[in-house]
Amino acid sequence: MKSFVQILKLLKNYKPQIAGNVFFNILSTIFSIFSLTAVAPFLTILFAPDDIALPATVPEFSLDSTDVLGFMNYQFASFIHTYGKEQALIYFCIFIVIIFFLKNITSYFTLYFIAPVRVGVVRDLRESMHRKLLFLHLGYYSDERKGDLISRATSDVNEVENSIISSLEMVFRDPILIIAYLSTMIFMNWKLTIFVLVLLPLSGIFISKIGKSLKGASNQGQSKLGEVLSVFEESLSGMRIIQAFNAQDNTQKRFDTTNNAYHRLMVKLYRKQYLASPLTEILSSITLAVLIYYGGLLVFEASKEGFTGAFFVTFIVIFSQIIAPAKSFSQAYFKIQKGIASVERINKVLHAEELIREPKNPIHLKEFKDDLRFENIRFKYGNNEVISGINLNIKKGEKIALVGPSGGGKSTIANLVPRFYDVSAGRIAIDGVDIKEIPLKELRDLFGVVTQESILFNDTIANNIRLSRPEATDAQVYEAAKIANAYDFISAFELGFETNVGDSGNKLSGGQKQRISIARAVLKNPPFLILDEATSALDTESERLVQDAINKLMENRTSLVIAHRLSTIQHADKIVVLEGGKISEMGRHEELLQRGGTYKKLFDLQSFQ
Ligand SMILES: Nc1ncnc2c1ncn2[C@@H]1O[C@H](COP(=O)(O)OP(=O)(O)OP(=O)(O)O)[C@@H](O)[C@H]1O
């Protein structure tokens, strides 16, 4: 039932299309029953050895099967009488073509209406997943495997399309067909129909049992596929190291282990799924056999109730029409169970808890006026406290440098300010306002973040620079590039600012990528800069250009710099030494050197390099 509700939720935007589909399904079923029930009585009368004497009076039409039969027989007989046998046969053939034409046109319209549902649901799912991922807190991404997320967005969504959506046609069509055929059968002979109805629930139990186990297996299968894609993705991104360390065999083994486990699971899964069709057919043929036996006896007994051979054949023809929709409905049921496992995996992402929440009563800051304060802040990754009580005041216009041994908590501090993570205790305040009270977008508008690694997207240089201001004019982009010392090298490219940077910007050098990400921050023009200095050394010329660009970017701004090379921060207003999540020293360069503590040690160490 829960699964059913989940599917209905996917469909809620497509009510008119579904209504259209159901409407044409009903029409198509009516045409199909009409075409089937008319053939046998008409041909029986047409080929009757004697000429038919028309009854003197027109039989009453009532909703009783014998009366209906009598009425139809009368109509057919009078038709044959009026037009003669040959002419009647021609008309009947034309009638058959028309009715089949109508049946197929209406069937086409059922599919016509289902097409936008089918494609739309998949588009909606991808869209809402992508949107959700864009706003989820960064901590989510350290806990989840990237490949698994990609697998949910691609293969699980495809699975929803292939299993659930492709089964929709059947879900809306088959029950209508089955109910209509069954009603016709009940109408024709209810006793005989009871035989069919007794056997149907038995089949239902069988089918639902297999369906359930299929869902479990499918869930495992999809999460294994997530692992497969994760390893694949890791191999791609670590290709240089894999080849440099000759680790191909090892990496392949790692991949094969997961890939083969996935393979084994899927073989089991498909074997179960393939059971649907033969199982239903066997069950239906048993029902058919019982039906023929019992119905045959009825025909032998007497044709007293109008239960003639031709009538019985029509009955069987209608029953045989149930087999196909029953089979495809049970197949659809199996497939849907498999697809529900994917819906659940997708829902896990869609319903993932947003740990970074928007404020209930937001306070809007027009601008950054005075200071940013850390008030006794603490932070834990899980149970591991990595920031243990930090107090710090950054006044507007100051340049603060964070230094210290690796793992001291510098990057963590930088992540707390734009609320990539929230503090576990204490508070961070801008001009006295807790940052949790400021709408996220407004808060993040205050900061420019330049990371160690330059993150570029597979797009043109101009669009990469425009990331936060898509509306910026070409002139503004050029100006930002000039300040970031990037204008000259960009203009030297054949396509200039329209040059595509390749995946993650891999068509550019390290220094070029850094200058483009600096240009991006220049264009955003934030009052507060968070800068994680690159550790990877560039050559001297490139280093000078990047450093010069950074200095220009920092002019007239407040900045928090995570410094790895102490030479670049000697003029900082305050140098904060972080060790084990606490501030161990704080002051200006000269003061800290005189003190002879950790900073001096770090400085001496780097001077020898
Ligand atoms: N996503 C994470 N999950 C769990 N622990 C983490 C995570 N990121 C960092 N840590 C831990 O938090 C501590 C502080 O890490 P952080 O990256 O802030 O240090 P850092 O001073 O910036 O180090 P470095 O100079 O090497 O970049 C480390 O002990 C690290 O192991």
TrEMBL record:
TM regions (residue ranges)? 21-48, 89-115, 176-202, 274-294, 306-326
ABC transmembrane type-1 domain location is 22-338
InterPro entries membership: AAA+_ATPase, ABC1_TM_dom, ABC1_TM_sf, ABC_transporter-like_ATP-bd, ABC_transporter-like_CS, P-loop_NTPase, Type_1_exporter
Gene Ontology cellular component? plasma membrane
Q: Where in the cell is it found?
A: Cell membrane
Superkingdom, taxonomy of origin: Bacteria
> What is the membrane topology listed in the Swiss-Prot or TrEMBL record?
Multi-pass membrane protein
The answer to keyword Nucleus applying to this record is: no
Q: Does the keyword Transferase apply?
A: no
Q: What is this protein called?
A: ABC transporter ATP-binding protein
Query: Per the UniProt entry, what species is this protein from, by scientific name?
Result: Cryomorpha ignava
